Amino acid sequence: MTDKLNRRRFLTHTTLLSSGLYGALKTPKAISSENTAEPDPTKVPGSNVSEYGLRSPHEDIKRLPMFNIISGTPLHKLQGSITPSDLHFERHHAGIPAIDPNQHELLIHGMVDRPLKFSVNDLKRFPAVTRTCFIECSGNFNARATPQTTVQMLCGLTSQSEWTGVPLATLLREAGVTTKARWLLAEGNDAAVMTRSIPMSKALDDAVVVYAQNGEALRPAQGYPIRLLLPGWEGNTNIKWLRRLEVSDSPFMTREETAKYTDALPDGRVRQFSVVMDARSVITSPTYPERIEKGWHEIRGIAWSGRGKIHAVEVSTDGGKTWLKAELQGPVLAKAHTRFRLPWQWNGKPTAIMSRAIDESGYRQPTLAELVEVRGLPTAEAYHFNPIHAWEVDAQGQMTFRPEV
Amino acid sequence: MTDKLNRRRFLTHTTLLSSGLYGALKTPKAISSENTAEPDPTKVPGSNVSEYGLRSPHEDIKRLPMFNIISGTPLHKLQGSITPSDLHFERHHAGIPAIDPNQHELLIHGMVDRPLKFSVNDLKRFPAVTRTCFIECSGNFNARATPQTTVQMLCGLTSQSEWTGVPLATLLREAGVTTKARWLLAEGNDAAVMTRSIPMSKALDDAVVVYAQNGEALRPAQGYPIRLLLPGWEGNTNIKWLRRLEVSDSPFMTREETAKYTDALPDGRVRQFSVVMDARSVITSPTYPERIEKGWHEIRGIAWSGRGKIHAVEVSTDGGKTWLKAELQGPVLAKAHTRFRLPWQWNGKPTAIMSRAIDESGYRQPTLAELVEVRGLPTAEAYHFNPIHAWEVDAQGQMTFRPEV
């Protein structure tokens, strides 16, 4: 580029730093394209078309396996609302089974007029529905978080896909549920034979037996060839590798709704069948390990609620003293990760940024103190902990997580 | 499963084959899970969590490279509306350049008050927008189609992603376009130095400089680290590996808008700057190579228009004599692949199924005969051919494409 352009650009920066909403955003730096040792991409032939379009080797984005039972989605590196299928979080109870879809069947039996078995191809022939929604593990809270915790480590156990399948109501209508039917057991074809009791009301409302995720077949880690989708309900009820639905008049009281996935309260009682995921939000950028510069940034994050649409997200840039309404990226869908954004001019002084979600039911995301008052101190098995998170910035621009209550 | 259940199931099938809307859909078959040689997934430990969730080895889904310049999306194997990023179609003019994002810059110059250069990180700090829309190659027509042509071979050069980036209007406001500015040149950093002229009206309307596709960084084959997104406009104007925008008062008349990407008309004239993609639809299932059984199916497909939202899709199951309105999967978004569905009870007799799209501008997808009357016989370089496609089913249930006019 010409010297003239270089000179004009410096003038530009001088101007923009003192005017223009986003002017201060840009960092002046020497134009370097002539001095680089990299080959000029316009002077060498590019690579060929292929069966799969791989990621750039310059991008480092992957799930974070932890304790050999979970792997979190890199939320701090994602934009928009879709989670690429190979980055969808994992929480298995006995690993990922290897299933031949031609051998796999779904049995519906119990309090039905006609017990039925469906092959995967049978299911694909029924009228289909597609919906975009999140699935979140009810244990999506990191009680061991430190200042050097990323969003992925903090709450990476939520992901969003565009799911396609057959409404469970259609299948239950085929089988003919009896008038006494109130619950059903959903069972997976994995080595845990994972089971959960689902109220008939949810099954007939918006439950879907899904076979496609983001356009193509489910990934094995998400239940290939079929899983139960219960929009807005805790992840483990969305039974993966679904093989059996038994209709009954009462819940089955499985291990996963008695010993596990119940919320111990300080007074010794437990919340049971606490299946709806409460509204939550998290800032995804800027967060640890980012180091930011003085000037304009866009605070970005996602908010979601198992009760319906996100009504609003409020963001504080002064440690919680004042709150501003963030912009929500449309279309705002029910029970779906909703991207929010707010411009922020950082003045170079230490502060903390945080976000809180309000859903269409009026539920407002609580502080950790509020949660602890009701549920006690969070442990590694704290379910349904959805506190407001804070991210601090120091005078050097280093972002860190603020883990204390 | 018990013998009792086996007996009940046979009774069930007898009943369902003669009643119930979708009863005839199910194929009775012996319950085989006891007799299989496959290991029982509930008796062996599953595989561990990992950094990436790969596809099942039982799924065969990939792009189809052709002529070393394109690869088509397997539309006939996709559900919903999102195209997984590694299956997004390709059309390159000199292959895929290897670009280091830290070396890449976007220059905006020409008729502007302040020529500017942006690093990729600069662009990410601006207020972002996310939108889901298709990109379609204007040459998305196969003049060599035979009865054994899949949807992928026929029109696989359209794909849909959730894109995130900075509105081009924001960047142009920073640079300050002069009052005489009417066009801009967009230039790619590939060995073709691909260039197209874009009217300022489109640039200021809904153009976006995107850096994210389906949540993560663009794939190299889709323009990593940044591409121009012109929703609804022919693919080649959505300049990949975008490195330069030159503002001017007139179009630049590049090779790609003079020798190429113009539509030759029978009278010797050409349509130039025919950039908006006309409304189109295609049935994705059942199509070749599927072989179907008598009974209920769901006809599925996608429809899209560069002019806005899909208003309706009509489907014929009797070779075009009568048409029924298909159901559209919401939310219906502007300039986006829209899934349509219609239940169909095939009676076992040969027929042809077809679909036609109507968009919110009132444009109706034409027949091939109507197109040929206006544009002449399609060649391998026929641009903007969007005819109604027909799929025949013979008495054995074999689906084939009907290529003749």
Secondary structure: number of strands of chain A? 24
Helical content band of chain A = 10-25%
CATH class of the largest domain in chain A: Alpha Beta
Instruction: Provide mean pLDDT of chain A, rounded.
Output: 91
- Second-tier CATH architecture of the largest domain in chain A: Alpha-Beta Complex
Number of helices of chain A: 6
CATH homologous superfamily identity of the largest domain in chain A: Oxidoreductase, molybdopterin-binding domain
Rg of chain A, Å, rounded = 24 Å
The main pleated sheet of chain A reads as: 5 strands, mixed
Quick summary:
The structure is a homodimer of 405-residue chains. Chain A has helices at 3-18, 120-125, 151-155, 168-175, 200-205, 368-375; strands spanning 64-66, 70-72, 90-91, 105-110, 116-119, 129-136, 158-167, 183-188, 195-199, 208-213, 216-217, 227-229, 242-248, 263-264, 270-271, 280-285, 295-304, 310-316, 324-325, 327-328, 338-346, 351-359, 390-393, 399-401. The first copy, chain A, is an alpha+beta fold and 405 residues long.
Task: Give a structural overview.
Two copies of one chain form a homodimer. Chain A is α+β, with helices and mostly antiparallel strands. The first copy, chain A, folds into three domains: 3-27, no CATH class; 64-268, Oxidoreductase, molybdopterin-binding domain (Sulfite Oxidase, Chain A, domain 2), CATH 3.90.420.10; 280-401, Immunoglobulin-like (Sandwich), CATH 2.60.40. Helix content of chain A is 12%, strand content 30%. The first copy, chain A, contains six helices and 24 strands. The first copy, chain A, has helices at 3-18, 120-125, 151-155, 168-175, 200-205, 368-375, and strands spanning 64-66, 70-72, 90-91, 105-110, 116-119, 129-136, 158-167, 183-188, 195-199, 208-213, 216-217, 227-229, 242-248, 263-264, 270-271, 280-285, 295-304, 310-316, 324-325, 327-328, 338-346, 351-359, 390-393, 399-401. In chain A, strands 5-4-13-8-9 form a five-stranded mixed sheet. In chain A, strands 6, 7, 10, 11 and 12 form a five-stranded antiparallel sheet that branches. The longest helix of chain A is centred in the first third of the chain and has 16 residues, at 3-18. The first copy, chain A, is globular. Chain A starts with a helix and ends with a strand. Mean pLDDT of chain A is 91; it is low at 1-35.
